[in-house]
Amino acid sequence: MYDKLFDKYGKVVFSRSDKKSPSAEVDDDAESLSFAVAMAKVASEVKAADIRVLFVKPLVYWTRFFIIATAFSRPQIDAIGSRIRDLAENQYGKVPSGDTKPNSWTLLDFGDVVIHIFLPQQRAFYNLEEFYGNATPIELPFENQPPPFRP
């Protein structure tokens, strides 16, 4: 059966046309990390909780980083998503695919960074941190800082 296909079309060998050098891959990872941290900071500013950035590139072929955050209402999910979309477009020239209406789980896909914003019950149910347990967690430079003092 396959012999006829091979005779007609030749042997197909998968090859990546965008093969990059290891140093170019590292540069892309660093650029994606910078973007991911900036987006996580925006989520933090809109009072998202338990924000995690995971380096998932070794585990999946379709993205480099996940951001997982908890919001406590659909309007908060909308606010986080709107602020992230605005910063991504205005400062980085990136427009996400994914949800435009707040749900109990909203996903913003920027290609190299995928952002998941959950309500607490859905985050516990889907438990992406456990599912991607072998991903490398990224320490966020702002997560352990106390909130700014406001008199």
UniProtKB/TrEMBL annotation:
Q: GO molecular function of the protein, one example? A: ribosomal large subunit binding
Q: Which organism is it from?
A: Punica granatum (Pomegranate)
Q: Which GO terms describe its cellular component?
A: chloroplast
Q: Which Gene3D superfamilies match?
A: Beta Polymerase, domain 2
Q: Keywords of this protein's UniProt record, alphabetized?
A: Chloroplast, Plastid, Transit peptide
* UniProt name for this protein: Protein Iojap, chloroplastic
- What processes in GO biological process is this protein linked to? negative regulation of ribosome biogenesis; negative regulation of translation
Q: Which family does it belong to?
A: Belongs to the Iojap/RsfS family.
